[in-house]
Amino acid sequence: MSVEQANLSGIRVLDQPVEPGEKAKYVAEMFDAIAPRYDLLNSLLSGRLDRRWRRFAAKCAALSLGDNALDVCSGTGDFAHELRQIVGPSGTVTATDFSAGMLESGKSKFTADNVVVVQADAMDLPFLTGVFDAAVVAFGLRNVAVPVKALTEMCRVVKPEGRVVCLEFSHPQGKGPVGKLFKTAFNWFSKTVLPTVGGMISGRKEAYTYLPESMARWKTRAEISEMMSEAGLIDIRTCDLTFGLVCVHVGVKPA
Question: Which has the minimum average pLDDT: 31-45, 75-89, 226-240?
Fold first, then answer.
C-alpha cells in the first residue's frame, strides 16, 4: 500500500457548524495529524472497550465465511481486522478512508491477502452497485460532512438484503442510579480527562477537544434511524452498549 501522508502545520477546533466542504477538509487534516497515536489513545481512553464494541458490531453485519465486506471510514483498520476474522481467507474486506495518514498508520493491519485498501470519500464510494454483502462504519459517520450521503452510498454498494451497520458514540441514557452516575462521570471525563490526556499523548489537544464536542452535537438515535430510512434502508434497529455511550444501528437493503 502506498499512501501519501499530509504535511500539517496545525489544526483548529470546529466550535460551531460549518459548511460540508470546510468540515471535510478539517476532519481530514485532524485525523492525518493524530494518526500516529490514534490506536494507543483509543485503547487507553476507552479502557479497551472499543474492541468489544467493534466485535459486537461486526457480528451485527451477519457476515459468513467467503463474504465480501466493506469498512467505511476504516481509519487504522481495527474494524476491518474484526471483519476479516469473520469472512475468513476465502472472503474479502475492503477498507476505505479519506485520511491518508490514518491508512498509513494502520498499514500493518492491511497486509493480509484478502484485505483491499482504497483511499476514498464515504460520500462518493468508488464501487459498483450491489457488490458487498455488508457495509459497516465505526466511529466515522459523525465525522462525515453529510452523514446521510454516506449512508446512501453504503446502501447502494451492498447487495439486496445486505446489511449496513453503524457503530457510533451516542448520548448516555442515565437510566437508574448506576446509569445516572455513569452519565455524570462520563460528562466530566469527556470535558477534562479526554482532551488533557489525548492532547499530551497526541500533541494535538484541539483534536481531543473536537471529539467530545462532536459527540455532544451528534444526532439522536431516532434521527440516525430516520437518516438510514432516508438512505433506502429498512428493518432498522438499534442496540445500546455501555449505558448508551455507544449505539449500534443496523439497517437492511430491500430485496
Answer: 31-45
| Sheet containing 132-138, strands listed edge to edge, beginning at the edge strand earlier in sequence | 115-119, 92-97, 68-72, 132-138, 158-169, 246-252, 234-241
Please name each of the domains of the chain with its CATH number. Answer: 49-171+218-252 (3.40.50.150)
Q: First vs last Cα of the chain: how many Å apart?
A: 35
Average pLDDT over residues 32-51: 70
Cβ-contact 211, 19 below 8 angstroms: no
What is the pTM for the complete model shown? 0.81
Question: 187-209 b/e with 16+ CB inside 10 Å = b?
Answer: eeebeeebbebbbebbebebbbb
Cell 479502557 belongs to residue:
47
